[in-house]
């Protein structure tokens, strides 16, 4: 079962070794993906929080653009580190206008209620043609 946890969880002070807390919350398995907006030295906790073959998506660098990493953690966890670049708001608006002008719509394979998210993951594992939508509300 997926475990959702935020570093803002009231019982855990930030940034107190949250990688260990993530491991505890997943019975030692680690999380599938970490969305890391902190970067810097916090990247070490992100790597330690992942399960084997987990992913750290580096989105920002509030703590700095450089990190001193123990590469053994990366190798041991077989962690994939993926940089995510985001554009500015104007680019997003231009994209939406282009899609609208040319009547481009995504291909939707299936739609699931939030309570049926496990079924959506099962569908994803079987292979979908198009997007799988999970409705939040």
Overview of the structural elements:
This protein has 137 residues and is α/β, with parallel strands linked by helices. The strands form two sheets. Strands 1-2-3 form a three-stranded parallel β-sheet. It has five helices and five strands. Helix 1 (18-25) packs parallel to helix 2 (43-49). The relative contact order is 0.11. The radius of gyration is 18 Å and the shape is globular. Mean pLDDT is 85; it is low at 7-14.
Keywords:
about 140 residues; alpha/beta; two-stranded parallel sheet; 5 strands
Quick recap of the structure?
The protein is α/β, with parallel strands linked by helices and 137 residues long.
Architecture blueprint of SSEs:
Elements: H1 18-25, E1 31-36, H2 43-49, E2 50-58, H3 71-77, E3 80-83, H4 89-101, E4 108-113, H5 117-126, E5 131-135
Parallel strand pairs: 1-2, 2-3, 4-5
Radius of gyration: 18 Å
End-to-end Cα distance: 20 Å
Number of helices: 5
Number of extended strands: 5
The profile of the biggest β sheet is: 3 strands, parallel
Shape: globular
Please state the average pLDDT score.
Answer: 85
Point out poorly predicted stretches. 7-14
> Which percent band covers the strand fraction?
15-25%
List SSEs in N-to-C order.
HEHEHEHEHE
Structural class: alpha/beta
Helix content: 25-40%
Main-sheet strand order equals 1-2-3
């Amino acid at each position: 079962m997926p475990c959702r946890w935020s570093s803002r969880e009231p019982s855990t002070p930030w940034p107190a070794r949250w990688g260990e807390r993530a491991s505890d919350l997943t019975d030692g398995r680690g999380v599938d993906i970490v969305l890391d907006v902190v970067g810097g030295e916090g990247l070490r906790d992100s790597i330690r929080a992942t399960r084997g073959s987990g992913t750290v998506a580096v989105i920002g660098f509030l703590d700095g653009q450089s990190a001193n990493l123990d590469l053994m953690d990366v190798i041991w966890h077989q962690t994939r580190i993926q940089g995510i670049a985001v554009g500015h708001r104007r680019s997003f608006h231009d994209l939406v206008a282009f899609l609208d002008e040319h009547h481009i719509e995504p291909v939707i394979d299936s739609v699931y209620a939030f309570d049926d998210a496990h079924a959506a993951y099962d569908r994803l594992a079987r292979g979908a043609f198009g997007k799988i939508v999970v409705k939040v509300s």
